[in-house]
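Work package 3, deliverable 3.1, input record:
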Amino acid sequence: MRFQDAAKDARAVVYAGIQADPLVARLAALVADATYPQRLVARAVMNGESTDADTWRAVFPTELGPDAPERDRAEAILAASLEVAERGEQARSQYRGAFVEELTQVLVRRRVAAAGPTAAAAVRRERRVLFDGVAAEIHPYDLTVELPGRAEAWDCKWGARGINADVLNQLDDARRHAVDEETALRVGLVVYDVRTSCAVRLAQQTAPRQGTVVVTLETLDALAGRKPR
Amino acid sequence: MPDPDAIPPDPDAIPPGPTPATRGAALATALAAFDALAELGETIEDEWSYVTALADAGRSRLRAAAGSVDEMLPADRGAAIVAACGEVARITDPHRAIDWLSTLPAIVELSLGGAPTAPGAGTGAGAGVAASGA
């Protein structure tokens, strides 16, 4: 098993510009340290119709009200999420995807960093996983951990609707090919959506999923190897 | 005499409904908004099965979050549910409606003081990531 950079097509080049937008990193850093309700604020606002901050303060008095704990972080998440929402329907969709990938990277790096000072560099983006005698998959993985004996491959989704047979098959194929080479590859999906939606979606899939970890909005902190705040 | 500086009313604004005083009234408000979302989402034919299953699960979550329906609800919580339902009433895109079928029950749970889905639990597909994982 080995890892390889994915060739960039025109669409990937455009998307790379969004991934590099400081807004994506700022939002991901805020949400990485957020509570579940604060993460829900981000999801609602980035997926909402209204771009008026006071509307969202009314929707989330427990997070954005005058007596809310950690209100400063919640307000910062609100402001950054509104910046995404204000970019228009097509752009916001791409920003949301880039945000989930960046958030996943931040969290996974925190866990992997415990393996040593240089381990965080083993967390990579947009990489293929290659196996001897097996044709390479068309789509690269959003995030890989390329540590010997502790390899991982993750795909990231904004919503449960991103879970489909192609995604599940690709992840499971990679896991099985790794087993064939007598090496371990942990595979999983990070879905910035609630567990109920993911469970409903998965229940309707016939693709193999028993070996695939699914991380939802409620369990994101496990990516960093810690309990939820 | 009308105020010449007054901001004209937004023609797209959704008039707020009455603030529910009880958990039961809040549930009724949320279910009405949720049903409208589900109806909109069902117009995506390819997702009909998912939407109907998600809607069933969402209604169950809402009812579970409501708990004792006769119990009084703090004014700000009732207002929060009205505001959330006002937000979803603005949605006209069926794809966005499907996304909100998962988000609205979670917001209502928060407003009604219900606990979110148990942290650390998985989805039934290989379970969640173990904290001591890979």
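Residues 117-134 of chain B have pLDDT under 50 and may be disordered.
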